[in-house]
Amino acid sequence: MIPHEYIEELVARNDITDVVQGYVQLRHRGRTYTGLCPFHNEKTPSFVVYPETQSFYCFGCGAGGDVITFMKRISNLEYVEAVKALASRVGMPLPEETDAAGKRRSRILSINKDAARFFFEQLNSDAGREARGYWRRRGLSDSTIRRFGLGYAPNSFRDTRDHMRQLGYSDDELIEAGLIRRHEKGHTYDVFRNRVMVPIFDLRGNVIAFGGRNMGDEKPKYLNSPETLAYKKSRTLFAMNIAKRAQSRKYILCEGYMDVISMHQAGFSTAVAGCGTALTSEQVKILSEYADEVVLCYDSDEAGQKATARALSLFANSPVKVSVLNIPDAKDPDEFIQKYGRERFEMLVNGSASAIEYALAKAKKPYDITTPDGRLGYIRDAVGVLAGPLSVTEREVYAGRLAEETDVTKQAILAQVNAAVRARARRSEKERERRLLEEGMGGRIKLQPGQGGRALGVAFAEQQLIGAVIKRPEYFALAADTLREENFLTDDMRAVFSLIRRRYEHGEPFDLASLSSELAPDTVSMIGRILAQNYELTIGEQDVRMYIDRILGSVPESSRAAQRSPDELAAYLQTLREKKS
Q1: CATH code at 100-231
Q2: What's the CATH number of domain 240-351, 3.10.310.10, 2.60.40.1930, 1.10.1530.10, 3.40.1360.10?
């Protein structure tokens, strides 16, 4: 464990408002700061920073916590790594590494770095002749190969393993890093064999994983590292470590590694790609931090069209402008650039269709608009597109274009669009009301089966008590003598109370930053919400006593009896007998 004195100083020197402002544009609102949440896509700010409690909470996605929690989430770090990042930010000496997960993650990063060097060396050895020929046939220069750290995994079941063993890594460590596997008979063997290797970097330039491509027809075509403590596919974009250094804020989102590498060699330095998975909201959020415009550049086959549709839906609530690239006479960007060159591809990128134009073209495709039925079907689907999140001007422009295509008046089309907008607004309002009900007290409190409605009030009192003592630690003395862990109905608040009691008895702090290292992420977010809801309220000693009484009032008589001493129990039973008689 990192000493609590160190955490206290770290939090004191890393004001949460200053840290968050490095990632989120905040607006001062009275005693708080608000902005667009960095953890999900939104257009209306629901992310709030609370300077007095040094906490944050998003009322949209439920993310919450302290400054260390924020650094963990924003940079995809373990607790100790987040502490180190904050320490480096303010020039504090780094804490001694005692966190097991942090040590393992650092070890994986070290393994990947040494493995990448080994693969690069193998590419330039006699054994890598075929692999060098493959990269040449793909049109890659030596400088591009060096820039991306491309390599070759030998055609052997043990060369990589044996080399890494010589560097001091154990088989268990190499298995956790995803470089080797253990056979059911007990022996280990290399995962990547006779494949050209593409290292995957995080935003800070660490090698976190590998993609291995075959050089022939064997399956699978690509073999990727598994997820590890250092690598989460949903939070990683290939080549983002290079693209983020570019001057341009117009990014090109591709389908595969080779498309990206080919584009970078051609001078398109903001090309990036997902890592072996469909685009995720987390990847969209990362792009939104660096890009003002994103050009979707997926393959033209059915899978590529599905990927385009998914990407458009994910970007719908993002401030990023999105357009879609249509690649003629080639299956992918790499092939087009090889056939027609950089200038022709740049013309495609600059002339790419907007998301609205793409959606309208897709709506039109199934219909023969030379027939009345075809025009009606096209208009119906197109109205659905124009009723989406568009500006009034955009609706005017595209309604006019639709009118010209279908020979229907612009006024008639706009009337249908406006009706569809009102219907969508009604549905959204109903959905919002449903969500608010779900997010009410009953929806947020986790009760065990069989616990009745009365228990909701007790569980709410538990949350209020925890929030009060974290905000005002001196109030815990009121609860220390009267409450025990078994008095709590909910598992999460029981765990928090137990941790606070332990720290209280040892004279240690129990502010949110001190607690977050030992609590589940969901529990930390819940505490962030509790602090956010009570931020404007003054909770006094009388309130705390009321919460305690409410919690104790939920304890069955049998449970209370079990807590009494023998003398107290005898007196209690005598009282019951007297009442009965």
Answers
A1: 3.90.980.10
A2: 3.40.1360.10
pLDDT tens for each residue of 33-76: 999 898 887 778 889 999 989 999 998 888 999 999 999 888 87
Bridge pairing between strands 271-273 and 64-65? unpaired
Backbone angles phi, psi at 55, to 5 degrees: -135, 170
Q: Contact, 49 vs 26, CB < 8 A?
A: yes
* Beta-carbon contacts of residue 451 (< 8 Å; ≥ 6 apart): 489
Q: Which two tokens stand for residue 346?
A: 């740049």
CA-wise closest residue to 469 among 427, 429, 512: 512
Q: What fold, for 4-90?
A: DNA Primase; Chain A (3.90.580)
**Which of these, 140, 149, 158, lies nearest to 208 by C-alpha position?**
149
- Cα within 13 Å of Cα(401), Cβ side: 13
Is residue 431 exposed (0-12), middle (13-18) or buried (19+ Cβ within 10 Å)? Answer: exposed
What predicted TM-score, i.e. pTM, was given to this entire model?
A: 0.61
Task: Name which of 517, 496, 439, 512 is nearest 64 in CA terms.
Answer: 512
Contact 82, 71 (CB under 8 A): yes
Give the largest Cα separation in the chain, rounded: 101
Quote the CA–CA distance of 20 and 70 in Å, as a whole number: 8
- 232-280 pLDDT, tens digit each: 898 899 999 999 989 899 999 998 898 899 999 999 999 999 986 788 8
Contact 355, 346 (CB under 8 A): no
The helix, strand and coil proportions of the chain, stated in percent and rounded to the nearest 5, come to 55, 10, 35
Handedness of CA 435, 536, 488, 457 (dihedral sign): negative
Residue 505, CB-side half-sphere exposure with 13 Å CA sphere: 9
